[in-house]
Amino acid sequence: MVYTYFFPLPAFDRVLMAYPGQMPLVLGGRDxxxxxxxxxxxxxxxxxxxxxxxxxxxxxxxxxxxxxVTETNETVALSSFxxxxxxxxxxxxxxxxxxx
Length: 100
Description:
The chain is an alpha+beta fold. It is 37% helix and 35% strand. It has helices at residues 2-6, 10-16, 75-99, and strands at 23-34, 37-47, 56-62, 68-72.
């Protein structure tokens, strides 16, 4: 969320409207400029559908071309992301219990 706040891409937001009822969560991205052309890429997971059908949504845009969307089922990367979320939640809950 913070990433999209500081580096907004309204064209990407419009493309992601094709997934109604889903909240896109940015996992990473890349912006660049080479040979007179800009390049933007963002990797998203869609919540809450991620927990039922994990997939990675990659949106790329080169220059003034319209953004292109690619959906991939990268099970290892997505499983790692889910594991990190669960471990982070467990660590946070343990930390909260110690304070009490």
